[in-house]
Amino acid sequence: MTQPEIQPHPLPLVVSVQSQVAFGHVGNSVAAYPMRACGVEVVEVPTALLSNHPHYPTMHGAILDADLVGGLLTGIAERGVPARASVVLSGFLGREETALALAGFLRRAKAENPGLTYLCDPVMGDADLGFFTDEPLRRAFAAELVPLADVILPNAFELETLSGIAINGASDVARAREALGCPAVVATSVPVEGQPERLATVVATRDFCRSFDVPRLPVRPVGTGDLLAGLTAARLAQGVALPQAVARAVAGVAQALRRTSGQPWAEMPIAAALPAILAADWQETGQQPLPSPADLLS
């Protein structure tokens, strides 16, 4: 007797547009593996192909031409990806023209799929490094991509750049979100007032502002923001509410950092830490349990 064919239920799909390295953990090379392990399908669109992150003594490869990235976006659109996707996540773009190509893709994708959520990590620089993108790309983030985003995920330095508001605590994140008109901001590396030994990730929306703070650790790997964004994107694709998705992502990144060498710019041990990253919940950080969705909206 012939057995009926089983049609598997399709997994939620995330399109991830960011850099890729052959060695190490940054961009899609840190985000895609944990996202898949969370239980989502990932379509990776590279914006740079590099041997390693730029804090090693040497680096090879290149930022990809915008026409090439645009062609990849066109190709996945021709395969029907925007209609199937739950989330588009973008990180390091490298070129103004790439940002413009992505903006065009997003406008078409959102018109085709109104339920699509766009998460924009406006990778421009950091407080201790300054800017590592040029002014035209920074303008493209502000003028083109941030207005299309449902959630932006800047660090405090990038949020200050976009909003013109100094970020010294959670209330400043809420003010910056209002100034930008974004539906939601997830800001990382936010100072905690009166507690210089801690750093916060702050979630601000029109309805609430919640802060998840963790101890500063004596490590400085590359890719922590990319990992947090990827974990958040995967949980959102699965239908988890934003505060809970961010809380679990913060706890997961903390697990990776606890296992990272203290050597300058050491790599996070993603494969070895993956079970702990995925299992991490906010209670593990020693903070108060996460409020219920009803409490968050009250």
Automatic annotation (TrEMBL):
Domain Pyridoxamine kinase/Phosphomethylpyrimidine kinase: 88-260
InterPro entries the record matches: PM/HMP-P_kinase-1, PyrdxlKinase, Ribokinase-like
GO annotation, cellular component aspect: cytosol
GO biological process, one term: pyridoxal 5'-phosphate salvage
Keywords tagged on the record: ATP-binding, Kinase, Nucleotide-binding, Transferase
Record EC number: 2.7.1.35
GO molecular function: ATP binding; pyridoxal kinase activity
Protein name (database record): pyridoxal kinase
